[in-house]
Amino acid sequence: MAPRWPGRLSSLAPWVAALLLALGVERALALPEICTQCPGSVQNLSEVALYCKQTSELMLHARCCLNQKGTILGLDLQNCSLKDPGPDFPQAHTAVIIDLQANPLKGDLANTFRGFTQLQTLVLPQDVTCPGGINAWNTVTSYVDNQTCQGQRNLCNSTGDPEMCPENGSCLPVGPGLLQCVCADGFHGYKCVRQGSFSLLMFFGILGSTTLSISILLWGTQRRKAKTS
Asked: What is the superkingdom listed in this entry's lineage (predicted)?
C-alpha cells in the first residue's frame, strides 16, 4: 500500500506555520545588547516603568522602554553592580530617561553621555555627580539613596559668550555639559576661516603627484646603484 504523504504534509502545515511565526516574532523583538546587559526586567514602580506606561505605543522589554520602531526611550540599569555603563551604553543615546542608581559607578561620567542630547531625566547613585555639573541641568535633587538630574540644558543658549564659536561657526549641543562648534555651510578649516568646499580633487592630485615624484626618484636611485655594482 502506497504511503499517504499528502495527509502527513497537511498535518505538518500548522506546526510549520507556528514555527515560522515564532521565528518572526523573535526577530521582530530582537533587543539591543544594552537592554539585556543586566538580568531581570524593569521594576513596576521605577521611573522608567512609570514613564513607559504613560503612552500606549511604548513597550517594556528586559531593561528598556522601546517605541514601536525599537528605539530606546528609557533604560533601567539600577542595581546591576556596574562600575561603568559599559561599551554598549551608547546604544541608548536616544533615551529620554535613564536610571543608574544603586550601582558602584566610578570616575567622571561626562564623556559617557556624549551624544545623549534627548536625555531629560537621569537617576544616579547619591554620591555620583550629574554629568556636566549643576549648570548642565535645570534641576538637581539629592535624595537619601539617589540623585536625580532633570531637564538637560542647552549650554549653547546659556553660556552668554558670543565669542565661544568663531564668526563662521555655530554652537551645537552634544550631551549634558558638552558642546562643539560646527562650521557654517561654505566654510571649513581652523576657526572656520577658509571659504568654499574642501577640494578632494586638489588634495588627491597633490598627493598623487608627490607619490609619483618620489617613486621616480627611488627608481632612478636604484637603477644607478645597479649599474655601479
From this structure: Eukaryota
